[in-house]
Predict the structure of Peptidoglycan glycosyltransferase.
Amino acid sequence: MLNTNKNIKVVFGILSIMFLSLIAYLSYFEVSYAPRLLSNPYNTRALIEERKVKKGSIFDRNGKVLAYSVKGNDDYWNVVYPDGRIFSPVVGYRSLRYGNMGLEAYYNRVLLGLGSNRPIDVLRSEILGRSKIGDNLKLTLDADLQKIAYNSLGNNRGAVVAMDPKTGAILALVSKPTFDPNTIDQDWKQLNSDPNSPLLNRALNGLYAPGSTFKIVTASAALKYVTDIKDKIYTCKGYVVVNGNKISDYQGEAHGNLNIKQAFTVSCNTTFVKIGLDVGKSNMMKMAEAFGFNRDVNFDLPVTRSTFPPFKLFSDNVELAERSIGQGEVQVTPLQMAMITSAIANNGVMMQPYLVSEVITSDGRVVQRTSPQVYLTPVTPDIAAVIKDMMISVVNSGTGTAAGINGIQVAGKTGTAQTGKKEDDAWFVGFAPAENPQIVVAVIVEHGGAGGIAAAPIARDVISAYLRR
């Protein structure tokens, strides 16, 4: 009898452990796995169920509708994008065949009204017969400015990023070529075979050599680590030889004797190679990482990491020389260049970039609001002020005069990045008004040639439109 009771207790204990394990697994599945499965953009079954929900709308900062739901003849909800091509790199698409992309993917649960709710909460709403209406997104984007940036980029491949340097709010984010999310199913095969990669968000995921725009980082490193850098004079003969490798200035122009400000103004490669060698590999790495290289950007959409790789153990000075002028293995996204520029505009403080300002329920309640946050502090206010003065000189009398605006002081830096192909990539980064910056703009035109010619006028148009409304 005693043995029987003991066996019963053992069996009961085993069954209890198995039951508790099952409960633990189901709880884990419900809390951790089920939400991911439900929101997976390639879960076709979930996508069919989603079409029973009136997805929330997406608005710009002024209330202009960028995406909204309409009921189709099949009694399912479809999303319509009024200015599809212009906003598709941000808003993305919704497709039963190909899943979701952009905000449609990364804020899918919010737009479906699920928010942070667990699947069991969704089931409860189903049982109680609650209406299926998603939450709305209010963005920091300015729709009018987005259109101006889009049109100014023309038929070029490239990107434009505009942001508020004091808050990190993204004002415009353009990538070209682009696509129409309203016809994504019909266009899918052509879009994926297009060598120009229209589905690539160049503003966030395109990696480019920054060219001379990187001289902002090099100059910052020199001001911090090189003694008396502002008083040093360098001689430019139109080229410099480093360990047997010749590095030339743009079109081989010899600039003569220059200090750091003069070299920055005319974008002298020879001088900045020498400045970079004075800074040294370790200090250059420190400053690049202070500006956010080799670091993931926490943003509302995926951002490819900008990279400044560690120097090879036994590398010579050629690698440092190339990187000092934004060539070699330095790779950067247009968003990262906008963030670097924003730190100079904002007295050395880089703000966390953000795109979604509010989540608003269908009955008008704000359930989530983004507050500006400091991201990095790469340089001191004093160094930022010196770089700002140099950037003003670039626009007033240097390589960036095409970015000048009557009555508004613009500060900027041009870049012409070698790509190994016939035409270089054209860059311009800048902000205005220089004395109280309200907007930062980064522009890249793929294979556009000189940054001061191809990219600076685009930045000028965007800055002028924003400040003169």
Remarks:
- The longest strand covers residues 425-432.
- The chain has two domains: 50-139, 145-179+189-355+372-467.
- The two ends are 92 Å apart (CA to CA).
- The chain is about 40% helix and 20% strand.
